[in-house]
Amino acid sequence: MKTRFMVAAAILGILALVVSACTSEPAGSPTQANFRLLVSDQPNVIGDFAHLNVTISSIGVHPFGDNSTWLEFSPNIGTVDLTTLQGENAEEIWSGNITPGQYDKVFIYVSNVEGNLTASAGNGTANVKLPSGKLQISTPFTVSGNGTTSLVFDITVIKAGNSGKYILEPQIATSGVNQGFREVKP
User: Fold this and answer.
1) pTM score
2) Which of 29, 48, 71, 136 would be a feasible disulfide site paired with 61, CB 3.0-4.6 Å?
3) pLDDT tens, the chain, 186 aa long
4) Domain of 162?
């Protein structure tokens, strides 16, 4: 009886070690994301919209000096409403670990843009275009192995003359890792 108890205890101990080895982080691995991508909106004519939903299909990050390699990710948040992201408000669309180093471009691939106008802008559905199906900024930034780099990608909507159409475009001057932001949750 005592032998069976000791064998059972030994088996349970070995199983506990195996399970903990499979679920724990390897020594020295980061416990938090080292890179976050957030979206914000530069005001311009966003006041014309009751909502302006942008559906993000994927994200691309380009390592500096490497013309052929792109890191691509699926967003954590599929759709953002730019009307809630005015000024310093920003919403995280992706967070995770990427190889520490220097990067120089970020793409946001957009599959759909849907906007409804306010009463003062004429009500109804807005005709919003994104000419290339993606938004791109070229801005150098570094991701380190320690801490988290947060990059704010600022998007704006502008009116295309008197055509009644709107265009989405990136705002490079207000995008980057040195931008202040106030994080909002979806």
Assistant:
1) 0.78
2) 71
3) 544 433 344 443 333 333 333 333 333 344 588 999 999 988 789 999 999 999 999 999 999 988 878 999 999 999 999 999 998 999 999 999 999 999 999 999 999 999 999 999 889 999 999 988 899 999 999 999 889 999 999 999 999 888 889 999 999 999 999 899 999 998
4) 31-183
Question: Do the bridges between strand 182-183 and strand 89-96 make them parallel or antiparallel, or are there none, so unpaired?
Answer: parallel
Count of domains in the chain? 1
Coil, strand or helix: which one is 173? helix
Q: Considering the domain boundaries, does residue 167 fall inside one? A: yes
Helix (H, G, I), strand (E, B) or coil at 90: strand
Q: CA-CA distances (angstroms) from residue 140 to 64, 78, 101, 117?
A: 8, 25, 11, 36
